[in-house]
What we know:
416 residues; mainly alpha; Proton glutamate symport protein; 19 helices
Amino acid sequence: MNNRLMLVGLMAGLAVGLAASSTGSPALHAIASGSAPFGELFIAAIQMVVIPLVVAIVFAGVARLGDTRTLGRMGGASLGFIVSTTVPAVVLGMVGMHLALGFVPPVPLPDTGAGPEVGELPGLIDFVVGLVPRNPFAAAAEGRLLPLLVFAILVGAAAGTLETQARERLVGVADAVSDAFITLVHWILWTAPVGIFGLAAPATARMGIGLLQSLAVFVLTVIVCLFIFMAVVYLPLVAVVGGVGPRRFIASTMASYTMGFTTTSSVATLPVLLRDAPSLGVSRRVSDLVLPLAASLNRAGSGLFQGASVVFLAWLYDVQVPGGAWVGAAIACFFAASTVAPVPSASIMTLAPALSAVGAPFAGLGILLGIDRVPDMFRSATNMTGHMAAAVVTEALAGDDDANSSSSIQPSEAPA
Length: 416
């Protein structure tokens, strides 16, 4: 799907809605309100795919790891890096957006007709108890995605303990299911320009220039938080733990950052990461294990974006969120960021569990899709930087543990 067409749909919707709001023209208001069903259909189609897609991807991702003990020290170090950096990324995104929205004037509450009704939200204890679904199928029917996410993780962990052939068969089925739904997502995204127009035009007609201001603040806040995150998390880690100075690390990752920025793809950037890893003293056996693992699971930039998005959409729709629900949203962002599907704007497509946790309508996803190209480039580039940081840190922590190496490839002659 061409992101430019989605942007065109958003710009057209904003233009029509803004014109209707500023002029009061009955004809423009009729066009804006008449387009709302297209937005509702678009969001309904996304909701139709979200549950089976997220469950299949999370199950396959967890089951594919197998018994994590077999990964040895390198696998443990890299997984520890992923967890210890993604969690603060999600928190920074949430906190940064909370602070930034304090400078944005209130806007009229948009129509939530395309989203679920927001009922009374549970407290912390009730929320924790509700994480384990009594009936996963009932949870799916009710659209409670976070319990389904927990269910998929537990079943995937159990599948990871099976014999290799049995595990691979289950993972193969899950991969086939997710591939089918990814294809369906691509088909749905071809309707995105019309659907986004149907979401943006009525909302802007109601909210006026306030929506444009809030979207600009959202994009700018995400970009600033991404650079802050790299400066206060990645650079200190590679310097203190990995022994690589910031100037050397930045110089050696500039190519992968640029590739990630332009392609927004971990797969496309992986060859560049593997090529440049020796310049940072990362041995081949470490890079061959850690970089593909990081490309599959390490998406702190996506986690930061999702945390900021949940806060922004809850603010936009004036959803009052208790503390327990914010914890659930952060957990959902963490797992969703680690299992982002290879589809356009996947970080938005997998926001549903976090939005469900706080009770925010799904209708805001269509608005974010229209502006996602710019944040997507910056968060993807941040993810690529994190992949290389993971390799540097793992080399320092476990790179000399030959006995526990799970790779048959001999170390390179690059300096350690």
